[in-house]
Amino acid sequence: MRSGSTLTSGILQQSGKVFFSMEPLWGIYKRCYRRKHDVCCRNNTCRSPNGELEGLHVATGAISDIFNCKFDKLGKEVLSSFTFFSVSSGYTGLIKNRCFGLFRNKTLTELCLKYLTSMCEASNGVIVKSLRLSAETLTFLKDIVPDMKIVHLFRDPRGVLHSRKNIGDFIDKNTNISIYARQLCNRMLRDIDILKSSKIHYIPLRYECLSDNPNVTVRKVYKGLNITVTKLVEHWIENHMKAKSRNSGGYGFQYKNSSVVAHSWRYSLVGRARRLKILIFTYMRSGSTLTSGIVQQSGNAFFSMEPLWGIYKRCYRRKHDVCCRNDKCRSPTGELEGLQVAIAAIKDIFNCEFNKLGDKVLSSFTFFCESSGNTRLRNNRCFEFSRNETLTEWCLKYLTSVCEASSGVIVKTLRLSAETLSFLKDIVPDMKIVHLFRDPRGVLNSRKNFGDLMDRNTNISIYARQLCNRMSHDIDVLKSLGIHYIP
């Protein structure tokens, strides 16, 4: 688990019209896997099979039936995987029609089985991904599916464990990680030795090779499988493994540089003392999203977009007051708008201390989750007004783990003036500042097109005056403060 199997499966699915079965044995073994004589789990313990369901013949028979598109022979524990992993497999029709639920309707089940069978029989290939079989069981499977081709995917165990930790997948958080490491390394070595000593033809695939050099590695794998690399495959690799934007985390494809993802665990060894801290200080519609995206490609960066949005909305904080884009300033409203709250919030984000943040700041991580790459926060409804303590704790741990595993923290804000940065620099002395600005005419034109001018009846010269005054003031302040920054 967490060895790049979802990405690898995605690549193989581009070979043509294929039918994909993701983790068909999940419903039987859950967090364990089947060996020749016993069942072993990730906490380094093994046990005897639990009844006939966990028998080896059931597992090998199930995979054989899937390869042969015989879904009517499958038990409900195997069929449940098609619904549970329907999004990853591409069969969302199953979940919409509530297929293979606990209280099964015979007519509905029959329709669902026909749907799977028709999809499978119309395909030119069947791909089964499984984490729940050891190498020694493959000889039994090969006997009943002799034309089956095997890809053995593995990854640096440190990367595997780091990824499992980040998604909170350790069964017992009080157990020393060395126990999980021992189990994983023992399993990997055992599988490699068995495959080498057996007469089974297989293709070894190291995840790091795939992520670092996808074009060459994919061609080698496709050649081993006797499949042609088409333009569609090349296009998919370009979009899914070399892209600059992000998509959802967890169990899905990462639309970013795959090499950075594969080696992200190495950056966690850097630690807080050497973690880069970058503040992008700018104005709305000045190219800050593009700039943030470029800076994020420097490594495995954690990105916080507009953490002060929930506090100031359409305004920004100066040293003594709060000013808005309609050229009006006012006194801070209550303690929440105090300068110390804003400064402390950004410091806590740089230090990955999310448990210290208030609701208004935390809400930014959900509101801007698409831009920051943390869509799991939205999917899990993190930091809503009616907060569930257990859920909030999970959300905070998730943010902390992603942040601490990063090589740098980038904070983008439009809601601070330059004069406030001296206070921030005092408590985050190793922070680096990028001052991003744009021709004010371009900014105002973009804001107008975006529909962001507060009052369409107000002469645009008022907004222009406020923007130009703010930009000039910020430039003069930065020059006079002696703070090192990158204009």
TrEMBL record:
GO terms for biological process: N-acetylglucosamine metabolic process; sulfur compound metabolic process. Pfam families: Sulfotransfer_3. InterPro entries: Gal/GlcNAc/GalNAc_ST (IPR051135), P-loop_NTPase (IPR027417). It comes from the Eukaryota. Signal peptide: none annotated. GO terms for molecular function: N-acetylglucosamine 6-O-sulfotransferase activity. SUPFAM superfamilies: P-loop containing nucleoside triphosphate hydrolases. PANTHER family: CARBOHYDRATE SULFOTRANSFERASE (PTHR10704), CARBOHYDRATE SULFOTRANSFERASE 1-LIKE (PTHR10704:SF71). This is Uncharacterized protein.
